[in-house]
User: Fold this.
Amino acid sequence: MGKKILSVRTVVAIGIGSALVFVLMRFVAIPSGVPNTNLNLASAILTVFGALFGPIAGFLIGFIGHTLTDLTWGGVWWSWVIADALYGLLIGLFWKLYKIEEGEFGLKNCLVFNAIQIAANIIAWFGVAPALDILIYQEPANKVFLQGLVAGGLNAAVVLILGSILTFGYAKTRVKAGSLRAE
Assistant:
């Protein structure tokens, strides 16, 4: 038999993560004052799940969760779905650096985690989403770059605070490698 691409644990995480992202984006979104741009706690969940389960999970959670949210609002805004999926992928690419599962998520890991999430937010929201809005929907550049700036900034702040707290908390539940000894 060939090597599995995704474990059962990762598939379940994709389902749970997508559902959480959908619920938080749909029902716990706080308007930012910029049209169609909200403060979303979902960005912290997407980030933590991407950091725990890797790039495929991060991509799919962002893609599925955002698509379901948009479908319930009446239409999918593909540029933002793609940006969320790309963001999840970028976070997941560096999952081994964070050492969350090993219970070693300390200050240095938190700094790496946040540097990566800020860079991923810049790529997804200052670059990809506005560019696709212009290419796909012929939206005015000043409007979409403002939306991207606000969305990326809010997402980065939510992850910096809530994402870091969730990640520290989860890492504390993990047993550190070499911490158990036979008596």
About this structure: Residues 105 and 116 are 15 Å apart (CA to CA). The longest strand covers residues 30-31. The radius of gyration is 17 Å.
